Amino acid sequence: MTDTGTDGGTGEGAGTGTGVDWAALKDEAVRAMGHAYAPYSKFPVGAAALVDDGRIVSGCNVENASYGLGLCAECGLVSALQATGGGRLVAFTCVDGHEELLMPCGRCRQLLYEFGGPEMLLETVDGPRPMSEILPYAFGPDDLSRGA
Ligand SMILES: O=c1ccn([C@H]2C[C@H](O)[C@@H](CO)O2)c(=O)[nH]1
């Protein structure tokens, strides 16, 4: 069932019942987006995620004069995750320059899957959805251990 209820003062907003403060995550994604370096696409992106120890990590896109070398916001986020102690991603959101929800590109879905697995919740226009729905039939670390 899609959960679009109000937060009843809990600060959870849409997605109540997930135990995630989605509004706080969005605030952090918007803050990060404000630091984006996107002079070529003019498409700033900010991403933020809740880690299983309660901290929030974020990232922004960083482009390059050699266009193909640009880094998505999610790249910065997973780098920040590792650089600040690691852990598992529990919930994720991403915004564009209009502060509207943005779905991660294909490559970034794979990046997020590495650190959040199939259960990580990702905010969509239809509410929070598990990564298993966003990257179905995913390739991941388990496949490597099976093949080794
Ligand atoms: O999930 C995404 C999709 C796009 N971008 C960035 C890459 C590029 O800098 C700009 C336009 O594609 O948006 C991200 O940061 N994350």
Automatic annotation (TrEMBL):
Co-factor requirement: Zn(2+)
InterPro entries: CMP_dCMP_dom, Cyt/Deoxycyt_deaminase, Cyt_deam_tetra, Cytidine_deaminase-like
Keyword Oxidoreductase: no
Coiled-coil residue spans: none
Pfam family name, one: dCMP_cyt_deam_1
Domain CMP/dCMP-type deaminase: 20-142
Its EC number(s): 3.5.4.5
Family: Belongs to the cytidine and deoxycytidylate deaminase family.
Protein's job: This enzyme scavenges exogenous and endogenous cytidine and 2'-deoxycytidine for UMP synthesis.
Protein known as: Cytidine deaminase
Source organism of this protein record: Streptosporangium longisporum
